[in-house]
């Protein structure tokens, strides 16, 4: 009796995907903590993107920007950043992301796309250098 070798098909191993955007966002928040601690206390990442289970993804809003800095400067109420990784690892801006940026701009926020850590650092530094937005409270009993 002759034994025949059974060849198993082995699927090629996929390289694990690298979350360049997530790594750069983490670096941005570390920079913010050191350079602008008062802004770091208020800024936050909106966990709306990424690959998720369908049940979780169904509860999220498409297009909402990645980062919000709720500090009023330069006549704006705050800053929204749609963060993309530094090229060549960046992704395109989706239609829903563009629409969200336009909507928050109409509501008095500065909204922008930053491609990479360096662009985001420059944008936040420039934004925080502007004078504080003056808020005039009405006489509505407050």
UniProtKB/TrEMBL annotation:
UniProt key word Zinc: no
Residue ranges crossing the lipid bilayer per the database entry: none
Residue intervals of the VRR-NUC domain: 41-116
Pfam families: VRR_NUC
Keyword Hydrolase: yes
Cofactor requirements of the protein: Mg(2+)
Keywords from the UniProt entry: Hydrolase, Nuclease
Taxonomy, superkingdom: Bacteria
Entries under InterPro entries matching the protein: tRNA_endonuc-like_dom_sf (IPR011856), VRR_NUC (IPR014883)
Gene3D superfamilies per record: 3.40.1350.10
Molecular function via GO: hydrolase activity, acting on ester bonds; nuclease activity; nucleic acid binding
Full protein name: VRR-NUC domain-containing protein
Naturally occurring in which organism (per UniProt): Azotobacter beijerinckii
Source lineage: Bacteria, Pseudomonadati, Pseudomonadota, Gammaproteobacteria, Pseudomonadales
């Amino acid at each position: 009796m002759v034994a025949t070798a059974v060849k198993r098909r082995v699927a090629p191993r996929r390289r694990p995907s690298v979350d360049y955007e997530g790594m750069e966002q983490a670096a941005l928040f570390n920079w913010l903590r050191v350079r602008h601690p008062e802004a770091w206390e208020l800024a936050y990442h909106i966990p709306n993107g990424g690959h998720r289970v369908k049940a979780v993804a169904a509860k999220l809003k498409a297009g909402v920007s990645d980062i919000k800095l709720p500090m009023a400067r330069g006549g704006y109420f705050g800053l929204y950043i749609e963060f993309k990784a530094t090229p060549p690892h960046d992704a395109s801006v989706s239609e829903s992301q563009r629409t969200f940026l336009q909507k928050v701009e109409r509501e008095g926020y500065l909204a922008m796309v930053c491609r990479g850590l360096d662009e985001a650092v420059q944008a936040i530094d420039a934004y925080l250098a502007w004078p504080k937005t003056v808020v005039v409270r009405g006489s509505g009993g407050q």
